[in-house]
Amino acid sequence: IEALSTDYAELSRQLDPWVAESALQSESFSRAQLSHALRKVWNEGLAQRYGVMQPATLNLQDALVSQLPILPATGFEHVTVLRLQSARVPSPQVSRFVRSFNNLQVLEVSGSGLTELTLVPDQWPALEHLTLSNNPLEALDVSSLRQLRVLNLRGTTLATWPTGAEQLPHLSWLDLRGTRISELPAEVLAQDRLLLDSHLAGL
Questions:
Q1: What is the pLDDT of residues 135-175, one digit of tens each?
Q2: Would you state the pLDDT for residue 140?
């Protein structure tokens, strides 16, 4: 119990100042809502600390904040689904925030101004579904996401093929509609299965 109290105190040390520092009343309310959602999902992970795995989903829609909080290194391992939509924060903050959830199976970040998503080795080894639609993406490397089955990049400004996508053994759905990709690499054109499973309208 003492360890749990220490962990929760660390979470509060990150969230409380973040909520309080906003000068705008509207954003202060949005930060309080987001803080509540994070505390709630943190509490849902208490069972995991006693050996009972209970996967959790975190939905953060229309996060009307100018800054995302920095989260502790542990405490969110039980979150397997994260949806972040219409966030209006700098792209590096979005990238940093989502990397705080290490055991994701589903990650959806749409319409959030994301220009890049830098993955470190062994990041999200269980990730099966990645949606980054309607973001101004400049480049994307998914070669480390070996379990990925669904990759949705629809409506992004991506101009080049997502690096490593053609090498993912389980990829069965790739949506590139509405991107700026105008040509496909030769190694992609040589894979009939990949072409059949990709949505390439407009290329």
A1: 999 999 999 999 999 999 999 999 999 999 999 999 988 99
A2: 95
CA-to-CA distance for 196 and 203, rounded, in angstroms? 14
Pairing of strands 150-152, 173-175: parallel
Is the pTM for the entire model greater than 0.70?
A: yes
- CA-CA distance, 86 to 40, in Å (whole number)? 21
Residues 38 and 142: their CA atoms lie apart, in Å, by: 27
- Strands across the sheet containing 173-175: 56-61, 79-85, 106-110, 129-131, 150-152, 173-175, 198-199
Give backbone dihedrals phi and psi of 45, rounded to 5 degrees, phi first: -90, 0
The pair of three-digit structure tokens given for residue 159, joined into one six-digit string: 């101009």
DSSP state of 125: T
